[in-house]
Specification:
Layout: H1 12-25, H2 29-35, E1 36-44, E2 51-54, H3 55-66, E3 72-81, E4 85-93, E5 108-114, E6 120-127, H4 131-149, H5 151-165
Parallel strand pairs: 1-6
Antiparallel strand pairs: 1-2, 3-4, 4-5, 5-6
């Protein structure tokens, strides 16, 4: 299978997302474990699925998808903020064990946050219909990360953005 074209606004978080699914599709479980930071927080905000957990529970849940026959993820980068945040479209395919046919799972948006070493510290899932909330979370996390580095500039940017978002 050919390598995907480089994404023009890729960052450390989008590369971690791509790497996660390259390892998933290559059946490299130890590689997946290595990408997950010890303090990873998983927050699934999709309707009827609400789920929040830490690294070990997320790995156990992700392992169930990993073990689905013919399971595969694809990812498409939608947005980045700085180096440590990305928003991606995730699509999953698989087969029901024992020849039961295709396994259905809704496509969804996933926000990934990575630490300074490029390990995943947060994954937040959203329904495709909830992209406004996904982008709002991406911006809010970016504001927090940037405020640590540039507090005055971040405060000015937030103040400038508020009237625009309020249509004022």
């Amino acid at each position: 299978e050919p390598e995907p074209a480089p994404e023009p606004f890729a960052n450390a978080a989008s590369r971690a997302d791509r790497n996660l699914f390259d390892r998933f599709n290559a059946r490299d479980w130890s590689g997946i474990e290595a990408l997950a930071a010890p303090d990873l927080v998983f927050d699934e905000r999709r309707r009827m699925v609400r789920n929040s957990c830490g690294r070990d529970v997320w790995l156990a849940q992700f392992r169930m998808l990993f073990d689905v026959p013919a399971s595969r993820f694809t990812t498409k980068l939608l947005a980045t903020r700085g180096e440590r945040l990305s928003l991606n479209l995730h699509c999953f395919t698989g087969e029901v064990a024992g020849g039961g046919g295709p396994l259905a799972m809704d496509d969804h948006c996933a926000l990934h946050e990575v630490d300074r070493d490029g390990r995943i510290v947060a994954i937040v899932l959203f329904d495709l219909e909830d992209q406004d909330a996904a982008y709002a979370e991406l911006d809010a996390r970016y504001d927090v990360l940037e405020a640590e580095l540039h507090p005055r500039m971040t405060a000015a940017r937030i103040a400038q953005r508020r009237p625009y978002l309020d249509r004022d």
